[in-house]
Amino acid sequence: MSVAETSPTRAVDLAAKRRTRIVGAILILLGAFLVLVFGDAPGDATFRLSRPRDTWVLPDLIVPAQPFIYIAAALTAFLGARQFLRGGGRWTTLSLGLGLGLAVMAFLVWATAENAFSLTGMLQATMVRAVPIALGGLAAVMCERVAVVNIAVEGMLLAGAFTGALMGSVIGGWGGLLSAVVVGGFFGFILAALVVTYRMDQIIAGVVINLFVLGLTSYVSSQVFADMRHLNNAPVFRSIKIPILGDIPVIGPMLFNQNLFVYGALIMVAVSTYYLFHTRSGLRARAVGEHPRAADTLGIDVYWTRYVHVTIGGMIAGFGGAWFTLGSVGRFDENMTGGRGYIGLAAMIFGRWHPVGALMAALVFGFTDSLQQKLALLNTPIPSEFLAMAPYIATIIVVAGLVGRARAPAADGKPYVKE
Amino acid sequence: MSVNEALDTARDKLLERAAPGRVQFEDLVIVPLFAVVAALMIGALVMLATGVDLATIGRSYVALVVGSVGSVAALSETLVAAVPLVLAALGLAIGFRTGLFNIGAEGQILMGGLAAVIFGFTFANLPFVLLMPLSLLAGAVTGAFYAGIAGWLRAATGAHEVISTIMLNLISYRLLDYMLSLDWVQREGRADPVSRSVPDAAELPKLLEWLDPNLRVHAGVFLMLLAVALVYWLMFRTKLGFEFRASGASPDAARYAGIRASLIIVVAMATAGALAGLAGANQTLGVLGRATPGFSAGIGFDAIAVALMGRSHPVGVLFAGLLFGGLEAGGRQMQVDAGVSIDLIGIIQALIIVFIAAPLLVCAIFPWGFRSDPKGGAQ
């Protein structure tokens, strides 16, 4: 339980002060770490900003490795020292963010020293890899804004991926996508029924849906797909380049030369932000999440609102799940979501229950994910397992250090019983 | 003001379900019975939907029973599958009772099992009476340490244990892969990531080898029974156990009563981790004889279900673990005899938990099974 509920403000101040100190110390150590470990990078690092066949070709960005790393380390340490001595308030989060960003840049320069690295390619991959996480996070936002905790995002993604592959093989890509959305919505409806009507515990309901979907999809893929391969061979949505915008260096390939899922995710984030914060029914949904009793008194049907939003959340997750099959390989493999749904949940919490925040957090995960992939090509001495761990360790650090001030919808996780 | 209010409150509800004060006969016997029956019925429907004919469905359920309790070999397999489930679930049950939702058993199993193997082959020349217990201990301590990270983070910074244990699970997979590729861990002359084998003196002895060398049941069974008794004693007969339960039932009241909440969180997580680590050591020392990638095989997640089904009571966990172990062993027989994939068992397990966790749903399906209507799902 939270400290603040029972303690006076002084305890909050003390906790905030301690966090300030911890963040300061972390940044100073990070600066020292950069110098000690990465300080001896030889030569220059070359970052390619465009590909040779692009319409507008930018020159390569050449960074002298050692000076850059020293400057980044000095800046990080300065931020840390400032934070340690007199930081606080907004500065804590900002400093940690900046410091981590500088450290990542220094690391990148170190890894690329005497080598070339396509920044454009990595940003494009970042966007692609962020999509399922962002959609999972967005699905969770829709549910939690009406006070339903959705651990089942993982299962809904998996269900979407499976349906996309199966129905995509039978009736084509668009049909597969539509079915994935419908099935995602179906599991959202089931979750709503279990937690709203049958008042089952929300976390148990989520865990069970995950178990059930994992069991069902694994069962069908070993029982049916093994013999009938044609049922697991769906068409893949190719990327569509938007004219002119797609030619903008760096940003163009990242945002405007992608497949349907990337555009879909961006549009959905925009639409859901507008819906939740600028429309009447969005306001009502949030009221149900904050204070269902009051909402009920005002004539809002709490149960109906929860059913609708959790089902919509499921549909979003189903769309996100289709990314795994229709957006990349066209084939379903057992447990192919591999915990992306849980990371989406974490993204929602970093993003402070806001669609745009969830997208930003998902981009951070997408970035580390694609960074790890690309670094494997650069022959760094760091074992790939540790690079793969990095996003998870970062998550723990961020959850422990940063999330302190975000606030969930007040009624989140509580069943509502009409009187 | 906590960030984690959402998960907190949800978890509180969970604990209400997972650790009810007084359980009634209906709740304890009839609901699980109906849950199993309903799950098997829906399982049959799933098989029908995937083109399995009725005769095969009948054969597969016969195989399920025969493979779980039909012979000495089946019972042996059931116990082998149940032991790690019960051990890990006991740890999770302590967590639930204390108000902690620990999803990290999987990672703790991996780390504990790996540590037990490393200890076993490193000190291979110790005699059995020392090596076996010390290897188990190494597993338990490592598991406790790994879970302790999440506990400490929760106590010190308020980082929610659901997220940190999920992340620690994901980290443990990579860490295991990395460790298995190290020269001093990897078996000589192997290119794939497999650890060295533990010496015989570190293995949990097989119990029925004199009867038939294929019977795999091992001394872990005693470990399981001992752990059930110990956890019962800890939870209901000691001051620490009382503090666990008090913190879980009402954190605020516990704080006013002078219970050090942060310390309790760390100790409860570490105890849970020790039991999960023991479950891992049990797998590597009793069944596999070495560590391989992903040797935990989802036991940590199934253990969540076992702990929930056992209502976070040590004795309940024992029975739930035996049921799930039986399903596992029977499921393998089902795959062999009827050609129905063992993944069906996962579906049946999930359905059993749904029906157990939502008594209202069971009442709606079987209205004649209940004398009194339970009031509200959470009761």
Automatic annotation (TrEMBL), chain A:
UniProt-recorded name of the protein: ABC transporter permease
Superkingdom field: Bacteria
Subcellular location: Cell membrane
Keyword Transmembrane: yes
UniProt-listed InterPro entries: ABC_transp_permease (IPR001851)
Keywords assigned: Cell membrane, Membrane, Transmembrane, Transmembrane helix
CDD domains in UniProt: TM_PBP1_transp_TpRbsC_like (cd06580)
Gene Ontology, cellular component aspect: plasma membrane
Transmembrane segments: 21-41, 61-81, 93-113, 119-141, 148-171, 177-196, 203-221, 260-277, 341-366, 386-404
GO terms assigned for molecular function: transmembrane transporter activity
Bilayer topology term: Multi-pass membrane protein
Main location: membrane
Lineage of producing organism: Bacteria, Pseudomonadati, Pseudomonadota, Alphaproteobacteria, Rhodobacterales
UniProtKB/TrEMBL annotation, chain B:
Compartments reported by the entry: Cell membrane
Protein name as it appears in the record: ABC transporter permease
Originating species: Gymnodinialimonas phycosphaerae
Membrane-spanning parts: 29-49, 61-94, 100-121, 128-149, 215-236, 257-279, 299-324, 344-370
Top-level lineage group: Bacteria
Membrane topology: Multi-pass membrane protein
Cited InterPro entries: ABC_transp_permease (IPR001851)
Pfam families, sorted: BPD_transp_2
One annotated GO molecular function: transmembrane transporter activity
Cellular component terms per the entry's GO annotation: plasma membrane
Keyword annotations from UniProtKB, A to Z: Cell membrane, Membrane, Transmembrane, Transmembrane helix
